[in-house]
Amino acid sequence: MPAKFITSAIRAADLPESGKPHICMLGRSNVGKSSLINHLAGQKGLARTSSQPGLTQTINLFEFDGRYMLVDLPGYGYSRKARSKGEGFERMLSGYLSEAELLKLVVLIIDARHGLTELDRDALAQLKEAQLPHVIVANKSDKLSNSQAAQITRELRTEFPDAKVILHSINDSRGLGEIREAIEKAVRAHKEERKG
Predict the structure, then answer these.
(1) What value does the mean pLDDT of the chain take?
(2) What is the pLDDT of residues 57-95, one digit of tens each?
(3) Around Cβ 184, how many Cβ atoms within 10 Å?
(4) Tell me, what's the pLDDT at 79?
(5) What is the C-alpha separation between 147 and 133, in angstroms, rounded?
(6) Non-local CB neighbours of 148 within 8 Å, separated by 6+ positions
C-alpha cells in the first residue's frame, strides 16, 4: 500500500486540507504506534520509531494510497514535561478531535501486556463523548499466551462493548487484516457520505 509522509504540525488547524478522510492513531508513548503505521504501510522507515518514549511532540500526517490521510498524534502519558510542552498534549488532542471534520476513525492502541491504563480510559471516554468511531488495537499480542490473549480481549469487550477489539502483532501480522478492514470501512463510509 503506497504511503508517504506529508507534514508535521502543532495544531489541527495547521494541517493541509486535502478533502480526504482522516484516520487517527492514538495511544500512550512507547505503545508501538510508529511500528503499527509502518506495518500498515508495508514500509519500515515511513514513521520514525524511537527507544525514547515521548519523542514525538507533533501531529504527523501521512497519505495512504492517495485515498486517506493517516494522522499520528503524539503519545500521551510519558511525562509531565511532555504533556505540558507547548500547548500541552491534552489541548492538542481535544483541539484535533474537535477541529478535524474529516476524522472518520480513531485507532486507539494499547499494550496488550498491560491492558488499559487510566489515561487510555480517559481517551476512550473522550472519544465516546465526541461520538467518534473508534477501534481498540491491543498491540504486541505475540507476547501473550493464548489464554492471556483471550482474557485481555474478554476484559476489553466487557468494559467497552461498543468498541471493536483487535489483537495485533507486527511479528506475525496478527490483526493486520482486521485493522485494514476497519480503516477501509471508514473510508468507504466517507465516500458514501460525499455521494449523498
Answers:
(1) 86
(2) 788 999 999 999 999 988 887 544 444 443 455 666 667
(3) 14
(4) 43
(5) 29
(6) none
